[in-house]
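User: Protein folding is very new to me. Would you mind checking the protein record under this note? It all follows right here:
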Amino acid sequence: MNLQLSLKHWLVAAILLCAVGLNGLLFLQNPYMGSASAGEIQMSAYHPAPEKVKLHPMRPASKTQVFVPLEKDERALMLEAKLNGQKPVTFILDTGATYTSISTDLAEKLGYDLTTAPRVSITTANGRVSMPKVVLRSLTLNGYTAYNVEATVMPMPKHIPFTGLLGLNFVKRHRVTIDLDAQHLVIEPTL
């Protein structure tokens, strides 16, 4: 199954949400983080995860497309990212998150001073929260690098298998296709 996320698709989804109503959609449950924002896709409900996840061989990236391997479990789609040229970390794809986010621990390891970072107010299912916002010099996914990516910084439990969320502020800058059968994300820059 392919799921293409583009501005057109987001507008259609927003219109449908308004037509159907938001009742029950605002408080979707994210099994890793608790309550999630409206529009978060619970992929396991549509495509059950296999008992053992095996990544398909990567297709070579072309000049216009980059194939990023996805690892899926029952709860999320995970991918590997490099931030500011450092060693890879695990992110989840969260199209319901306004911003890309990184854990407080990761932000400190990357050298960000969170005491002087500007703050942004985010509305979550649990209410409004103020978080530090940093600018990642680079975010690299399988050889494709985006520069100057804004990211919020939030505390994340140490027991979860990821240290960040790839949010809508990254996704909306690209044409993104989620191919669950081939277990990869296809990124095409929109210039």
